[in-house]
Amino acid sequence: MMIAGIIAVCVVLAVLAFFLPRLSKHPERGTQKTLGLGSRAGGKAPDPLGRLFSKPFRSSSKAVGKSGSAGRRLRGHMPF
Known about the structure:
By secondary structure, the protein is mainly α.
């Protein structure tokens, strides 16, 4: 379920970054902040479990950042 939610957020951010590049930064930062909280909470577990629990949040945060930047980069290549 979490995977589907992250995919949906990435798609929404990419579309938002394409059509409204300046207004897409705030939702992207908010999403990354929320995922950072999850990563920090998962990292409080003992050593190997901490890395295991925080990894999905770290990779999701990277995906959110990449989708937002890809939408803005694609917008920059458009002729209009």
